Amino acid sequence: MKVSSALEQMTRGVDWGNLDVLVVDMPPGTGDAHITVSQRLQLSGALIVSTPQDVALMDARRGINMFSKVEVPILGIVENMSCFKCPNCAERWFIFGEGGSRKTAAEMGVDFAGEIPLEVGIRQGSDDGVPIVISAPDSDVSKAYVDMAQKVVDRLEELSKEEQSRPQFNL
């Protein structure tokens, strides 16, 4: 009930102005919050975020299936914490496995939006309130975020064009 009331206040009690995009970060799973969001908001799409490990990908699959059932387009899958990049030697360690989200996207027929590594700079920027795309715009991880964001925007534009091209019937 608290989630529903917070969602109601966020969507109906706030003047968001004219937005291009509103991102709602949801916890993993397919619980009441996800269903409530799907029912109460006209969602343009859902971006599924997962780590590459099997247990997290089970939740990602459930999320894809749930959003598909309620006719919310899947914008893609993002693999968060895809690897740990050593700040000293730049060696990549695949702590949670490698490529699980890419494989899941292919198996489920959805777009793969990108990989975001586990890097100290991301955490530092979050703690400081300065996103890494601002503090280190030329870094590999910033480029990964920008590339992922562009894929999501492209997918949203594609979905918008599909919607506009559908015949409209007034019954």
UniProtKB/TrEMBL annotation:
What the entry lists under Pfam families is as follows:
ParA
InterPro entries on file = Mrp-like_CS, Mrp/NBP35_ATP-bd, NUBPL-like, P-loop_NTPase, YlxH/NBP35
Leader peptide range in chain numbering: none
**A GO term for molecular function:** ATP binding
Q: Which Gene3D superfamilies match?
A: P-loop containing nucleotide triphosphate hydrolases
Q: Which UniProt keywords are present, listed alphabetically?
A: ATP-binding, Iron, Iron-sulfur, Metal-binding, Nucleotide-binding
Judging by the UniProt lineage, the source's domain of life is Eukaryota
Q: Name one GO biological process term.
A: iron-sulfur cluster assembly
Q: Which family does it belong to?
A: Belongs to the Mrp/NBP35 ATP-binding proteins family.
**Name by which UniProt lists this protein:** Uncharacterized protein
